[in-house]
Design a protein that fits this description.
The complex is a heterodimer of chains A (196) and B (172). Chain A has 196 residues and is mostly helical. Chain A is built from nine helices and two strands; from the N terminus they run αααβααααβαα. Chain B has eight helices and no strands. Classes of the chains: A mainly alpha (196), B mainly alpha (172).
């Protein structure tokens, strides 16, 4: 029967109320995991704090496996679950620009909003930067439109691209995440602690 | 004993809760979590106030302003407002509410703010190319098994590791 709103089980008029409640939980979980601190987040890239890796991969696995079970039990129609379409080059370029922004700014948009919520002023300037960046992108769009739309593969799933089943992909992804957790603990023990 | 302000949730528990929230969001709305889209809607809203004609002519933002509704009446805007409220509640419970510029003792607040703003600007640009940020593209996209989510995730984290060496003095 799910997803509930697209399938008509919940009136779309409730959307914004649901969005606000989802957001409260999202912000609460991010903040209590430590994502309101840029120095904690950035520890991922210098090896002194791997919280981001642990939270991010655990969340991805939980939701992914949940979706696959829900689909198997016919509680949700996976074909109605949205994910962004694939434009290979644009995603790579965008990802690399975001990677540079991440290491300079210390936040991503979600954690920036979270940090702003507890009064971090650097997060306020990060969010102002986001605003300016999106405006600049829009103004420069005619120059980059070709890249933005090139190599369009449509709504392709990662397991289809690899030619394996979704269940096998999830299994391999979990193994990779567990290996990353072990490696992260091993590295963290050998890196000079940073006080923050 | 640890200071109270430093006690955070166990990261695996935090990740599990975040994953359950993401799953519930997929189940109810058919879409995942997001963040950068809300800022995009804010840019659209400002432009529609200051220069509706410019917005109409804009090939990119113009496409997000159709439908007749106010540009701030979107799912993601309400969700991100919720994020700030939720973070505030968590911060209040853990006694972490404080106006401050967090930075390494080796750099000044001013430098931190300049880099935060520059980083935000780049993140804003990059999230438009990738059609989503760490929340919408990397986390939600990957959980829904979208190929684009994995490309974006690997590009963000992989390149940040490559760039980390050049910016180490900001952080360690």
């Amino acid at each position: 029967m799910g997803p509930l709103i697209p399938s008509g089980y919940i009136d779309p008029g409730w959307s914004f109320v649901i969005a606000f409640i989802v957001g409260i939980f999202f912000g609460f979980i991010l903040e209590s995991s430590g994502f309101s601190s840029s120095r904690k987040i950035i520890g991922l890239f210098y090896g002194y704090d791997f919280t981001v890796l642990k939270v991010f991969f655990t969340a991805t696995i939980t939701a992914m496996v949940g979706l696959l079970y829900f689909n198997y039990l016919e509680w949700i129609d996976l074909s109605l679950v949205y994910f962004p379409p694939t434009f290979v080059y644009s995603s790579i370029v965008g990802g690399v620009i975001m990677g540079l922004g991440f290491i300079m700014g210390g936040y991503c948009p979600g954690t920036g909003a979270c940090a702003l919520g507890i009064g971090k002023l650097d997060a306020l300037f990060f969010v102002i930067g986001l605003y300016l960046g999106i405006f600049l992108f829009s103004e420069a769009f005619p120059l980059v439109e070709k890249l933005y739309t090139s190599k369009a593969l449509g709504d392709v799933r990662v397991n289809e691209a690899l030619g394996i089943s979704s269940g096998l992909f999830a299994f391999l992804f979990i193994i990779a995440a567990l290996a990353a957790f072990v490696l992260a603990s091993w590295i963290q023990k050998r890196v000079k602690p940073v006080d923050y | 004993m640890k200071e109270r302000s430093k006690t955070y949730l166990n990261p695996y528990l935090g990740g599990f809760l975040l994953g359950m929230l993401l799953l519930a969001t997929f189940y109810v709305t058919g879409r995942g979590l997001g963040a950068s889209g809300a800022i995009k809607n804010t840019v659209v809203a400002t432009m529609s106030e200051l220069s509706p004609q410019h917005l109409q002519e804009s090939e990119y933002l113009g496409r997000f302003s159709e439908g007749g509704q106010h540009p701030l009446q979107t799912w993601l805007v309400y969700e991100v407002l919720g994020v700030m409220v939720g973070a505030f509640l968590s911060g209040a419970l853990a006694e972490r509410l404080k106006w401050k510029v967090e930075h390494s003792p080796k750099i000044t607040s001013r430098k931190r703010i300049l880099f935060a703003m520059a980083g935000g600007l780049l993140f804003g640009i990059g999230s438009q190319f990738a059609r989503g940020c760490t929340s919408g593209a990397a986390l939600s996209g990957s959980a829904a098994l979208g190929l684009s989510g994995y490309i974006t995730m690997l590009s963000i984290f992989g390149s940040a590791y490559l760039f980390a060496w050049f910016f180490r003095k900001l952080w360690i």
